[in-house]
Design a protein that fits this description.
This protein has helices at about 5-30, 40-55, 60-85, 90-105, 135, 140-160, 160-170, 175-180, 185-210, 220-230, 235-260, 265-285, 285-295. The protein is mainly α. Helix 2 runs antiparallel to helix 3, helix 10 (about 220-230) crosses helix 11 (about 235-260) and helix 11 (about 235-260) packs antiparallel against helix 12. About 45% of the residues are buried.
Amino acid sequence: MTWLEPILLTIVTASTPLLLAALGELICERAGVLNLGVEGMMIIGAVCGFAVAHTTGSMSLGVIAAVVCSMIMSLLFGFLTLHLLCNQVATGLALTILGLGLSGLIGESFIGEPGHKLPQLELPFLSELPYVGRLLFAQDALVYISILGVILVSFVLFRTRLGLIIRATGDNHRSAHALGYSVRKVRYGAVLFGGACSGLAGAYLSLAYTPQWTEGMTAGRGWIALALVVFASWRPLRLLLGAYLFGAVSVLQFHAQAYGIALPSQLMSSLPYIVTIFVLVIISGNKQLTKINTPACLGKPFRPDR
């Protein structure tokens, strides 16, 4: 168990940003909005969170700044796609490109600067338990927020009236509009929630996973988060399983090299993306399952007729 504990700890840290980002995208897609700008929002959250935390010395302000800045990015996406009815795919890709470029500009002066790491919330006695103490009871706040977020999102989506409205908006926005619900407001709320989750994911990368700023540090995690939503069939609890599975694959390269497994480093680095493609191919083969779970109005623009 002494060799297993550090592996499990690194899996948790690698999985948390994927889970946070995918959770926000799941709500977006459940409401009928396809936002491909997750990568851009994540990296803006990472650079803004690090910049504020480094300047003020407050980790809490850093996390808040990451959330706010990512929500501003998502608001831009919402205005373009929900008000101006721009193509959601093209707008999401443009948002990612904008985020990557803007983050490089903002973070230029912070490259190489020492960072501060989010403190661990250690529970007395419980964190000292053998084998599971550090794993379950000595994590930082964002790890617990990600787990709690899965539970809350699952409860809201399938046990509350709000969740029913969100799902109705994604499945048949015309019917939801006919019943008197504001499709645009519901989708704006979902887009902002997605932006907030992407901001938390970005903050985790620059304040906990690797407490520093490096350009392009999201390294494609936003795209993996998008694939995770499809992998989970738009179900929050399946999303938790998928995120930790992909997190395990992503850290496999480091532990394989540590144990002397002779595989090319380039192959090990590409494993998460190979697995992503492989999973999407398998899922797309089951057309009936995909059709049942996919929100019917996903990516379709809505123009109110009254």
